[in-house]
Amino acid sequence: MFKKLNQTLITKYPLIWNLKYIWILLVALAINSIAFINGFLSFNKKSQLQEFQLFNNFINEGTFVYYIFISVILLIIWIYFYIKNNRFKSFYPTSRNYLFKEFLAVFSLFIVFLYIPNSYQLGIKTRVANYMSEDQYLKDIDIINRGQAFTLQQGFGYNNYSRNLSIPVFDTLVSEQQTRQLFNQNLIELKKRNPKLVKQFLEPYFRNDEFETLLAEHFPQRKSYQPINFNRNYIPLTKKISDDSDYPSSYNEASVVEAAIPYENDFEKGNDTVAYTYINLASLYNYSSLAFENPKDSTKNHEYYDKELITLLQKNNRNDIQKLLNSYKELLDKNEIGYRLEKAKWIDYIPKYPYYFIDYQLNDFNNDTLKKADYINQSALNIIYSNVGQAKYQSFWLNNIQYYILSALVFTMLLITFRFSSFKVWLTTIIGAGILVILGSVIGLAFNYILSSNYLAYIILFFFYIVFLILTFFGLKNGKNKLITGVNLNWFVLTNIFIAIFLLSFYIQVREDILYDYTQAESLYQFREKNKELQLLNQLADIFLYINPIIYVITFYFIINLYKKWQAMPEE
Q1: Cα-flanking dihedrals φ and ψ of residue 95, to 5°?
Q2: CA dihedral 135, 141, 146, 149 (to 10 degrees)
Q3: Cα distance between residue 234 and residue 360, in whole Å
Q4: d(Cα 57, Cα 243) in Å, to the nearest integer?
Q5: Mean pLDDT of 508-528
Q6: What is the average per-residue pLDDT within 190-200?
Q7: Residue 455 main-chain phi, psi, to 5 deg
Q8: Residue 484 burial by CB count (10 A; 0-12/13-18/19+): exposed, middle or buried?
Q9: CA 532 – CA 193 distance, rounded (Å)
Q10: pLDDT, tens digit, for every residue of 77-128?
Q11: pLDDT tens-digit readout, 131-145
Q12: Which stretch of DSSP H or E encloses residue 172?
């Protein structure tokens, strides 16, 4: 059977026979199948769902080393047989179509080998996706979205800076006009010390520090020597949850800041110490965050759950809150998540109507240094449902395929340039490329010291690209300097893989520098998130990663003729 198949390939499909394509492709598919099964079986304990990098175990646990070792050995054996018969170097009449098909075959083969990590990840995601039904998942994340505010975690924002919606019990005490007036007064004073300072009035108005300062005047009873610490973060209602995080993406203005207003000019001195007093205004009302997006009901979004929380608090029904806390605890028990509520019941930690000012903070994990304080391991629960949600709704067999294709293109061209040129030319190409990288880096550092420009890397790369192109066509036209021409042709072909990506990146950098004012208080990251033009350009850049290999494959069809002309040049 194999002998007959081999004979058929020799007579009818010489390219496939010469590449040993069927056999090596079957081997590559077999390794991918093994990787899928390996990934599927690697998930065998419920506790694994609490691993933040669960789907990256192929890398994190070192499994990839075995697959790389086996794949490299097999590819070396295949390449040995592949380069033994080179009809192009032997001046055997070879059409452009034949060489192009050879390029496509090698390219597709590398894609299959580089897809192995995806196969492993698909295996483990398939297993995790079946851990619970979709109905159960949607029911559970609804409980988490409703109950997370009551976990009183340090990582959440409970001050007025963090909220998105109006809270009548607070906003009726301080108006926007009052807040703006104090903001302008403070800005004048700040500019006296720093004339270049740029500070924007935040919207909604209650997010400004001046609002909290004015609000503190209404609650002198909240004075304390011990501030309650929560993160100062803000999550816009329109912001999507990051795909690779178990927490919602947020704008963290400081790692941990005091969700309290220092009461100025009010301190006591004694024994060379100063004890400041604070007005603690952290409130459940101010919580504004979405743990999980509902993939089946877009109406259950960030704003929906913020309104649900406000409504629940305004009802002043402790029994409803207790039911929600019980449902949340059931999730913790079901998923074997640790918590301790021994010093007091959970409901006793929850602040009370009408302002729901927070006086206690619950830890996220069991910490012996905190003398076994009560805690709720909220983050572990979120990680579990983040992993399940990712497995159910973000498991696509083409995940990250653009990067695998780009890598396959690089490996393919390294092999094809060796195949289409001589060993001497190819070796000079590789060594010379290393020298050029060092030279380009030295030039870049030297010019950057003088000019300090963001564009030097792009300019240097484009300069070398043009030089490669000119020297290649000059050598082919004159029919001289075959070695130099072949090396420059290889450099041009290899650089061609990335040149369009770099040009697009260069354009985005230029537009970013034009649009962004580096003197403003808003960070560059926040500006990128808000500016529609930059958002569109970044989306186009992501799409272009898929388009770039297609463009390269088309252009290479015509570049093959350059290799044919180079091959016809006289030896020196």
Answers
A1: -80, 160
A2: 170
A3: 21
A4: 17
A5: 80
A6: 84
A7: -105, 0
A8: middle
A9: 34
A10: 999 888 876 655 555 557 888 889 999 999 999 999 999 999 999 999 999 9
A11: 999 999 999 999 999
A12: none
| Tokens 């007093």 belong to residue | 277
Reported as type and span, the H/E element at residue 570 is none
Q: Report how far residue 63's alpha carbon sits from residue 70's, in angstroms, rounded to the nearest whole number.
A: 12
Residues 205 and 343 sit within 8 Å (Cβ to Cβ): no
More confident residue, 462 or 524: 462
257 pLDDT above the threshold of 70: no
Count the neighbouring beta carbons within 10 Å of the beta carbon of residue 198: 12
Amino acid at 193: R
SS (H, E, C) 17-36: HHHCHHHHHHHHHHHHHHHH
Q: Which two tokens stand for residue 298?
A: 């877009």
Distance CA 438, CA 446 (A): 12
Between CA 412 and CA 74 the distance in angstroms is 16
CB burial class (10 A; 0-12, 13-18, 19+) of residue 482?
A: buried
Residue with tokens 């072909």: 493
Strands 273-280 and 375-376: unpaired
Token pair belonging to 403? 């990067």
Would you state the pLDDT for residue 371? 55
Structure tokens at 429: 């190409």
3-state secondary structure of 231: strand
254: pLDDT strictly greater than 80: no
In 3D, which of 309, 18, 375 has the Cα closest to residue 167?
309
Residue 325: pLDDT band with limits 50, 70, 90: very high
Query: The tokens 């019980």 sit on which residue?
Result: 326
Q: Which tokens is 108 given?
A: 């597709």
Bridge partners for 357 per DSSP: 283
Asked if residues 491 and 559 have their Cβ atoms less than 8 Å apart, the reply is: no
Q: Are strands 375-376 and 251-258 parallel, antiparallel or unpaired?
A: unpaired
Q: Model confidence at 211, in pLDDT bands (50, 70, 90)?
A: very high
Contacts of 110 (CB under 8 A, 6+ apart): 407, 408, 411, 412
